[in-house]
DNA sequence: TTGACTACCTGAGGCATCCTCAGGTTAACT
DNA sequence: AGTTAACCTGAGGATGCCTCAGGTAGTCAA
């Protein structure tokens, strides 16, 4: 799937530009994975076989590069929230989605922080995606609440706080440990209501 | 209370040295509070009225400076865990301590990350303090578990994961929001057992 | 009080990274 | 083939990290 740029595919312009765009993005993904969101952009440019100015031409900001590097994964997460599942399996759908969210939020070190900031700061490259995730999460949470399987007083903002916390723990888990899933399981046991309540 | 240096008061040496040490520490606290743990050390030195080399003389590493800047607060937290409270109010003691821990962990932006890394990485300036906190937390958790008020399968490591997550959320809460306390409350409701179980 | 001794301080400087911009290059279209 | 402008390059100013050679001054003993 050729990624053509932010929001609207309006940059099928010069072939060399597209090629460099793709190369930079691939290099950035590798660098972020290895060194976190504060990886050296000059290093990224070097690995992409491109001068530093070219990188800044395509991605005027580090945040823009992060946004582009995570767009596919996060939009996948948004799509996953779109299949509405009221009724019987609303809780299962929600919990499965939460697991996916935590995984995506901790794609590389530093991402959760960027997303958390983008969530409430419009004018950030990732804000649109965050807003979409917020809507999707609200949908799933509402369904599970209507089904009587999740405590009714839980806000969507609070849900994302929990997801962010879990993702951060996963990012920063000590060597050998993997705090994410267990964290989420513990949290969930405090949110879920017994099945009989319905 | 004059802070005389790491671990053992073995540096009541020259008066100017002590004076600069204190000035740097005060400036660092202010800078960390304002800009997070990655504040400019050259700026800190400037605000302390000292050359950059002097800062590095007293604190060879940014981590050492962070350790010194947080030592008082964290040792207070450790002391708070030392008063053993078995029996009736074990749960209350634990929850109160957890609230204090979250507050101290989020003294400034970036601290939780440093502490989380120090927890399992000996050779870090903050490791000793982290180990002490780990022991204290284990004590309080054990008491609450023996009193039958907290689920028995919760590890001390997991407790600290939850505390770290809450602290991170508090650090990164959106403007106006204060996710920490609510986060902790939600988590606790998943950990606590009904009183009747005793 | 004076004379070491040495802990202490200074700040230039090498290195990394960020980000900009003036000028050269070339893909694409006529 | 000629024209246009999108694209690329890389030098360079700014900031921050950290080190080190050389100068300064607190302290103590005589």
Explain what the structure shows.
Chains A, B: Pfam families: TetR_C_43, TetR_N. Two copies of one chain form a homodimer. Chain A has 198 residues and is mostly helical. Chain A has two domains: 15-60, Arc Repressor Mutant, subunit A, CATH 1.10.10; 67-197, Tetracycline Repressor, domain 2 (Orthogonal Bundle). Chain A has helices at 15-35, 41-47, 52-58, 62-80, 90-105, 111-120, 127-146, 156-171, 179-191. In chain A, α7 (127-146) packs across α8. Chain A is elongated. Chain A binds a DNA duplex (30 and 30 nucleotides) through residues 13-17, 20, 40-43, 50-54, 56-57, 60, 62.
Overview features:
homodimer, 198 residues, mainly alpha, Arc Repressor Mutant, subunit A, Tetracycline Repressor, domain 2, 2 domains, 9 helices, elongated, disordered N terminus, DNA-binding, DNA-binding (chains A, B), Homeodomain-like_sf (chains A, B)
């Amino acid at each position: 799937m050729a990624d053509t740029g932010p929001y609207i595919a309006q940059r099928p312009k010069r072939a060399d530009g597209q090629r460099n765009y793709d190369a930079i993005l691939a290099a950035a993904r590798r660098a972020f994975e290895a060194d976190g969101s504060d990886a050296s952009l000059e290093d990224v440019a070097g690995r992409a076989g491109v001068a530093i100015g070219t990188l800044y031409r395509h991605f005027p900001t580090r945040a823009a590069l992060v946004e582009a590097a995570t767009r596919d994964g996060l939009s996948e997460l948004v799509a996953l929230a779109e299949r509405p599942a009221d009724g019987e399996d609303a809780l299962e759908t929600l919990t499965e989605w939460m697991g996916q969210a935590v995984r995506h939020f901790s794609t590389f070190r530093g991402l959760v922080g960027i997303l958390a900031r983008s969530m409430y700061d419009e004018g950030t490259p990732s804000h649109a995606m965050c807003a979409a995730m917020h809507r999707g999460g609200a949908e799933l949470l509402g369904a599970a609440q209507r089904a009587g399987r999740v405590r009714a007083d839980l806000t969507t903002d609070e849900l994302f706080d929990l997801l962010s916390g879990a993702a951060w723990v996963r990012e920063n888990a000590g060597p050998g440990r993997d705090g994410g899933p267990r964290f989420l399981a513990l949290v969930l046991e405090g949110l879920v209501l017994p099945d009989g309540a319905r």
